[in-house]
Amino acid sequence: MVLMDGITGFRRGELIALRWADIDFELSQANVTHAIWNNVEGDVKTEASRKPVPIPQMVIEELKQWRAVTLYRADSDYLFPSVRKNGSQPITPDMILRRHMRPALQRTGVTKHIGWYSFRHGLATMLRQQKVDLKTAQELLRHANPRITPEIYQQAVSEEKRAAQDLVFRGLFGGGSTQHPSAPSEAV
């Protein structure tokens, strides 16, 4: 589930609402048609949220394996069902965080308190680090407004901060070009 949320940018209510019928194994994508909030199923947040979400092939393979062993594998079943509720509801997101994700992160040395949006912020920042263009990042995160992606979700990357700081120091104290590496070149 961490892979699904962190890599593909699902919102938690969309992720837990996924049913097997929503997964297109041939196209490696999920068709997001509904979300669950406080055990109430309803529409997704925005029209942008309705767009199919690409799923990495590695995750598709994991889903195939999971479907083969789960008790709840019918098209109408949830991908992540609550066994305590006999599959009639999905497992709760907070339980997933508490019982599975946070302990796994602690075993890897991550002690920071992680919430669901940590994964979306992390994805946004990783897309920026990889220099993925803003439109692609916006669509992967399925933000309706393109300003949301850089203003709220993406963090400045350390190398960019260092380059910007170096630019200011070179400008103040001399020592070379004052052109930031990410600034557009001036036409000659």
Task: Show the helix and strand layout.
Layout (H helix, E strand, L loop, with lengths): L1 H7 L3 H6 L5 E2 L4 E2 L4 E3 L2 E3 L10 E2 L2 H13 L23 H15 L8 H14 L4 H8 L6 H6 L4 H16 L15
Antiparallel strand pairs: 1-2, 2-5, 3-4
Shape: elongated
Helix count equals 8
Q: Would you tell me the overall average pLDDT? A: 77
Radius of gyration: 20 Å
Largest sheet: 3 strands, antiparallel
Give the strand content: 5-15%
Structural class comes to mainly alpha
Instruction: Kindly report the spatial arrangement of strands forming the biggest sheet.
Output: 1-2-5
Give the tally of β-strands. 5
Helical coverage, percent range: 40-55%
Distance between the termini: 51 Å
Q: Which spans of ≥5 residues are poorly predicted at pLDDT below 50?
A: 1-7
Order of helices and strands: HHEEEEEHHHHHH
Account of the 3D structure:
The chain has 188 residues and is mostly helical. It has a domain of 109 residues. Helices cover 45% and strands 6% of the residues. It is built from eight helices and five strands. It has a three-stranded antiparallel β-sheet, with no helix packed on it. Strands 3-4 form a two-stranded antiparallel sheet. Helix 1 crosses helix 5. It is elongated. It starts with a helix and ends in a 15-residue tail after the last helix.
